[in-house]
Amino acid sequence: MDMPSESTVRAEVRAWLEANWDPALGLVEWRNKLADSGWGAPHWPKEWYGRDLPQALASVVDEEFARIGAVGVAKAGIRTLAAATILAHGTSLHKEKFLRRILTGEDTWCQLFSEPGSGSDMAAAVTRADFKGNKWVINGQKVWTTSAHRADWGLLLARANWDVPKHKGLAYFILDMKQPGVQVHPLRQMNGHASFNQVFFTDAMVEPEFLMAEVGDGWTVATTTLMHERRGADSLRSWATASKREGRIYDEERAEIATTMEPYKWYPQRAGRVDLVLERAKATGKINDPVIRQEIARLLIMAKTAEWTARRARAAQEQGRPQGPEGSLGKLVSSHVARAAARVHTYIAGADALLSGEDGALDGVIAEILVSVPATSIAGGTDEIQRNIIAERVLRMPKEPSVDTDKPFRDVPRNTVSS
Amino acid sequence: MRFSFTSEQDEFRTIVRRLLDARSPVSEVRRLMATDAGWDRDAWRKINQELGLTAIHVPEAYGGQGFGYAELAIVLEEMGRGLLCAPFFSTAALATTAILNAGTEAQKQALLPSIAAGDTTATLAFSEDDGGNDAASVAMTATSSGGAWRLDGVKSFVLDGHTADIVVVLARAPGSSGESGLSFFTVAGDAPGLQRRRLKTMDETRKLARLQFNGVEAQLLGEAGTAAAPFARTLQQAAVLLANEMVGGAEKLRQSALDYAKMRMQFGRSIASFQTTKHKAADMLADVELAKSAAYYAAAAVDENDDDMPAVASLAKACAAEAYLQTAIHAIQIHGGIGFTWDNDTHLWFKRAKSSEILFGDANHHRELMLQRWGH
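YS: structure for the whole thing
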């Protein structure tokens, strides 16, 4: 198959947008046009709402959308992970039923992987999937589930076979969240927000055709989802700037963004707010304290070099050169930056760091930094797991001898919590 | 700003590394560091002339190759990796840079071609007995009578000062202070009245000397009383180059500690399989890669004449100082007892990390400079 040139793609999408783009349309109506034309997800397969374009050409399409301010398909949240996983492992029934409504944003998805008893050791999930009668019956508990309270569908990792080693006994399901056997409760965090949920299953039902791949393939399918999660972690949040333009479709998109991004509103504080350090130091006069100056300088060096290291990785990627180790460090380094920033903010705020909300420094933003930063070194893979990944994949250091991967999961010692 | 090397630069790095691996193995480093000079004139001339290393950043008009600081930084990174014992930093990074920054056209024409050709070595003498790195600490006086300049005073911590053919000296007019009244001079290494004594150094691969000037005749470099600005710029560029040398050494230590951990068996398994070792190795990688990013960025900033260069130079030096030393500490720890022995090579780089940490000002000094240069 011949790949079209950049100018052909640009001309084609431009012509199509000129003929079709209309801000007076409803959001779903417009996105259905995008699905039908293949311009909403150009890197997807032709037979499933895409155009089989490589990522570089898909970016050209994005540029043309941005140029005239056209709204794109729904991109935020777990739905993109669901789409990637379904495209890779789903049946035509799955693709038929779910992909279009993912693009239009009509369906919301959540990811049901983590459990109270298995955080870093995700393959040790103990939520049960038992085949009874002609359905899968699900019992157990999931946690850290963003948007579960709004989700229509869940990507569920559950144990279907207890007599094989842990990675082998998992199954991956698409679960209907709107059923009596599924209960969702918000999980309040130490910073007072409740961005995640706990999800309880009591004889929840899954139709047999909503098993993805085979029983035993669950871990492989979950790996696809996680790979896309890592890849998209940065783009998710940079995407979420609402257009200021007027028109019905923009109003609808703004409402969608507000809802989707609500759980993430404290994320800037979680990263440490390095951007506030100098202005706070000047406002408080602490910029003249030689000890605090050293702390500030250390932080700024860390933040700058982290940024430049990411730029190095990106530059290598853009030139098609093999990525060096610098590309694997971002997550770990961002933890260091966040922690250092929280320390510096504490020194700068002094006694004001004792207070929160409207009594606290900067209307409580500083307090929110101090109590949000601990999440950075845990969420999305702890610092310890990041170091293991760097050591084993980048530095090729040997794995620790395993005590659980070769025996039936039934015999593996585990937490008593919800087992 | 450029964030990646070109394929020509990558190729150049490979060639430099291959040359240094062949001509300066650690056995040669150990041999030379035990000598009084600290380097071997014939051996260095051969290495230098094979690739024209001292000509790298010298403009073609003065017999050089006309490359930039990015290329010079690559050479230094490789030399830091190989711990080459040669008067390269003193000649190329310090003296040549000072001459380029301060010299008149005629002086550049006169001085640089033989340096570029590798026939002449040189150094820059600015610190005195207090080890200061700023213009204000310069006490050495320069007096002019009958069109001839004479220098009186002491310079110390002078890199390769006991062997340099030409010494570029920073001195001041009697009675002046701070940044005023400063001038650069060149002095022949064997000038009458110049007493040179090699100092015993903690890092034996980097030789330092104390130079006593008693009415030594000197040639003015540039215009009298105007050396403060070119001196400041020279030190900023030197800091950038040293940072690049340092990340080369840090990378070498990181790799050798990793290789050792993979090979060393204890408790029936490779110590590289213990999480405590893996986490240390991952942290070392992060430290070194971040320091590399700073050093490369700073070298690009010099080439692009970026306004931010002075601040970024200090940033890179401070970052490399902490990364190199921390890597060296971890490297010895990973080696265990053998890492504390003279026969194991780790201490050679540990000491280079220590000497580099202090040379041209430590990390505290440069962090403060960075904030000031950013206007905070």
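YS: worth flagging: The two ends of chain A are 52 Å apart (CA to CA).
IM: good catch. Also Confidence is low (pLDDT under 50) at residues 234-238 of chain A.
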